[in-house]
Amino acid sequence: MELGTVNYAAKDGIARVVLNRPDQLNAISPGLLEDLDKVCAAVEGDPTVRAVALQAAGRAFCAGADLKAVRELSPDPEKWARFMRLWHRVFNRIEALPVPVVAGVHGLALAGGLELELSLVAAHMRTAEAAEGLRAFAEKRKPVFHAS
Fold first, then answer.
1. What is the pLDDT of residues 49-87, one digit of tens each?
2. Cystine design at 62: which of 26, 39, 71, 100 (Cβ 3.0–4.6 Å)?
C-alpha cells in the first residue's frame, strides 16, 4: 500500500497508524484523508488486526485542516464540497472501524484534529464497548460489540 502522509504497519494484532506531516503539524489535507481511507480499508480487510493505535509524528497531533488546501479549494464550491465529502466519509469510516482505536494525542489537537480525537472517543470509548475492547485485546480476539 502506497501512502504519502501516513505510516502504517500491522504486527501482533495491532495496526499502528502515524500521521506523518510533522512540518505541517499533521494538518488534514486531501492527501492525508485519502491515505487514512486506505488505512481503513487495510484494517477492515485484515482479520488479524484487533486494535488500532493512532499517533502523529512531530510536535503536534493534528492542527486541523491544512490552510493551504482550504485556500486552494474553498473558492471553488465543487472542489470544496468534494473535500468536505471526503473528510466526512473518512472520519465516519474511522468511527465505524470494527476494532478499538486508541489515539496517542500529544501537543496540539485543534479544530479538525480535535474532531478526530473526539470522534474516536465517541465511537470507541463507550463504557461497555471499551471494556469489551480491552478484554478482547487481552484475549487476542476480535471484540464483539452489540448494537444499542
1. 998 888 999 998 889 889 999 999 999 999 999 999 999
2. 26
Extract the C-alpha cell encoding 98.
470494527
Alpha helices in 20-111 (DSSP H): 30-44, 67-73, 77-95
Distances in whole angstroms, Cα of residue 62 to Cα of each of 65, 72, 79, 81, 112: 9, 20, 23, 22, 8
Collapse the DSSP code of 140 into the 3-class scheme (helix H, G, I; strand E, B; otherwise coil) and give the result: coil
Residue 94: is it exposed, middle or buried by C-beta count within 10 angstroms (0-12/13-18/19+)? buried
- Asked if residue 135 has pLDDT above 80, the reply is no
Match 492542527 to its residue by C-alpha cell.
Answer: 63
Query: Going from the N-terminus, what domains does the chain have, and what CATH number goes with each?
Result: 6-138 (3.90.226.10)
Cβ-based neighbour number of residue 104 at 10 Å: 11
Task: Please give the Cα distance from 22 to 18 (Å, whole number).
Answer: 10
